[in-house]
Design a protein that fits this description.
The chain is 59% helix and 0% strand. The protein is mainly alpha-helical. Among the domains are: 42 residues, no CATH class; 34 residues, no CATH class.
Length: 138
C-alpha cells in the first residue's frame, strides 16, 4: 500500500505530523505506517463472528447474569425475615396458640423456634451423598 493509498484521515494526520517542528522521524514513521497498513489489511480480511462463538458469548453473559441476580436475591433483605434483635418468642407462641388452640405451650414454643430458624436460612442446593465406593479410586 503506497502512501497515497491511505484513507484521507490518515493522510491528513501524516501531513500534520510531518509539518510539526522536530527531528526527522524516518524509522518511527516507517514502523507506524507499517503497523497501520497491517491493521488495515487485518480489518479488511477479518471474518464475521461465527454462530458458535456468538452462542458461547451469549451463554457466558447469561450465566454471569444469573449468578449475579441469584447473589443479589440472596443478599437482599426486604425485611420479610424477623430481625434477630427484635424477635419476641412469647408473641410468636401466642400467635401459634391462637391459630392452634389445642397445641401445648411447649410444642408452640418449639414451632416458633423452628420458624425463626427457618426464616434465617440461606437458600442452598440440596447436596446428595455419593454412593458407597464412589470416590475410592481417587
Amino acid at each position: 500500500m503506497a502512501d497515497n493509498d491511505l484513507p484521507p484521515g490518515l493522510r491528513d494526520l501524516e501531513a500534520r505530523l510531518a509539518s510539526r517542528p522536530g527531528p526527522d522521524a524516518g524509522e518511527a514513521k516507517a514502523r507506524v505506517l507499517g503497523a497501520v497498513r497491517q491493521e488495515l489489511m487485518a480489518t479488511a480480511h477479518r471474518k464475521p463472528l461465527s454462530l458458535w462463538r456468538f452462542a458461547a458469548a451469549a451463554a457466558a453473559v447469561v450465566l454471569v447474569w444469573v449468578n449475579l441476580s441469584i447473589s443479589a436475591v440472596n443478599c437482599t433483605d426486604v425485611r420479610l425475615r424477623p430481625n434477630g434483635n427484635h424477635w419476641d418468642e412469647q408473641a410468636a407462641v401466642a400467635e401459634i396458640r391462637e391459630l392452634l388452640p389445642d397445641c401445648p405451650v411447649e410444642e408452640a414454643r418449639r414451632q416458633a423456634l423452628l420458624l425463626r430458624a427457618r426464616a434465617q436460612l440461606v437458600s442452598a442446593p440440596e447436596l446428595r451423598h455419593a454412593p458407597p465406593g464412589a470416590g475410592e479410586g481417587l
